[in-house]
Amino acid sequence: MSQPAGGSAIKDVVGEDVVTRDVAIVGAGPVGLCLALELAALGLTVTVIDRAPWEALASPDDDGREIALTHASRGQLAASGVAIPEDRMAPIREARLYNGDPPHGMTLASARGEAQHGIGQLVANHLIRRAAFEAVRGDERIELITGHGVQALNGGADWRSVRLDDQREIPARLVVAADGRLSVTRRLAGLSAQVHDTGQRLLVRRMAHSRPHRQTTWSWFHGERGLALLPLAGDSASLVMTLPPHDAERLKALSPTAFATEATRLYRGCVGEMTCLDALHDYPLTVSHADRLVADRVALVGDAALGLHPVTAHGFNVGLASVRRLVEALASHAGTTADVGAATGLASYARHHRRAIVPLWHASRALVALYGDTRPPARLVRHLALGAARRAGPLQWLMEGYLARH
């Protein structure tokens, strides 16, 4: 399959035969691709670079992960041309958090009345990736370079150049790192980050079950172990387990039948007896936070800017919010479309996005630390916090407002 040609509105020439794009995006995940679509809609020329081969991006494997989309994120995807069929989404009507064994938990958010779509929808990660790639592939303003990684960043007075592993140079007015929480582009740009390997593993698997989930997500914390259940279509759900390595290896060694029995026990029969629907997927658990979001003609988006713990369930939504804020900042500053990498627009983006993500980063770290602490004082604090939260309507209102806006 041949790659599509690049965009036509070339702005400048660096050297004899090398054209300068407006924007070069490193990373063809959903965040990078959505950014490409929104920038192209502004009339900018965009090149997207990814080390994965074309075939892997066009038809991504099912990695077992489910993405919780807020209504704002779903609208942003649709506006960008990323079409996900309604019947491939599973609504969420309520989200609950539990502190170990007690039967009462905290309602983080709940759909009021008879809202058709609840507080959000769950969509398989590979479906979002495929839909985003299809949208970009159909846009002649966007050039795709696949199967090549980035080796270096160079630059001049009004441009940066991405050097690929085949020694090609891709000059652009702006380079955007959308290559994940371990971003190579971020490092090459000299932007430091706090990267924390939690030492834990993330196991995910889709299961069928005998009792209804009532379109409710559940999260439990038991010391080092965190368990979540995400409601899918019909009587099925995705199990998400945050585990120490020895627990993860024990579960990985089980047969599907034995795994289902153990999962039913771990989840306390909350949805009845379980059976496995597909393969078990295993991921290392690393979180990250960039100290700065921009450098000279470089910006960070998605997980390259903030890689959250899955307990927040908001990683992809925050990534899409970074796209929205960057596009808004670039579009709202005079002269930005003439020079998209100008410092004024980037500074505006960094200021607005940092204001949103710094509290989220600290809150998520504090939540994980509190719920991972097995000492009696921490258990008491968790118990009191949940008790207070159950009685505090404003807390639920604030959480629901956050879900609606982000």
Task: Describe this protein's structure.
This protein is α+β, with helices and mostly antiparallel strands and about 400 residues long. It has a domain at about 20-85 and about 125-195 and about 285-375: 3-Layer(bba) Sandwich (FAD/NAD(P)-binding domain). It is about 35% helix and about 30% strand. It has helices at about 30-40, 55-60, 70-80, 125-135, 185-190, 245-250, 255-265, 315-330, 345-370, 375-390, 395-405, and strands at about 10-15, 20-25, 45-50, 65-70, 90, 95-100, 105-110, 120-125, 140-145, 150-155, 160-165, 170-175, 195-210, 215-220, 225-230, 235-245, 275, 280-290, 295, 300, 305. The strands form three sheets. Strands 1, 2, 3, 9, 10, 11, 12, 19 and 20 form a nine-stranded mixed beta sheet that branches. Strands 6, 7, 13, 14, 15, 16, 17, 18 and 21 form a nine-stranded mixed beta sheet that branches. It has a three-stranded antiparallel beta sheet with strand order 4-8-5. The chain is elongated. The two termini are about 35 Å apart.
> Per DSSP, what share of the residues sits in E-state strands of 2 or more residues?
25-35%
- The CATH architecture of the domain at 21-87 and 125-196 and 287-377 can be named as 3-Layer(bba) Sandwich
The stretches of 5 or more residues where confidence is low (pLDDT under 50) are 1-16, 388-406
Whole-angstrom Rg? 22 Å
Q: Give the rounded overall mean pLDDT.
A: 83
End-to-end distance, in Å? 37 Å
DSSP helical segment count: 11
- Give the structural class: alpha+beta
Q: Classify the helix fraction into a percent range.
A: 25-40%
CATH topology of the domain at 21-87 and 125-196 and 287-377: FAD/NAD(P)-binding domain
| Major sheet size, sense and barrel closure | 9 strands, mixed
CATH superfamily of the domain at 21-87 and 125-196 and 287-377: FAD/NAD(P)-binding domain
General shape: elongated
Kindly state the number of beta strands: 21
CATH C-level class of the domain at 21-87 and 125-196 and 287-377 is Alpha Beta
Protein name: 2-octaprenyl-3-methyl-6-methoxy-1,4-benzoquinol hydroxylase
Pfam family, one: FAD_binding_3
Domain FAD-binding: 22-351
GO molecular function: FAD binding; monooxygenase activity; oxidoreductase activity, acting on paired donors, with incorporation or reduction of molecular oxygen
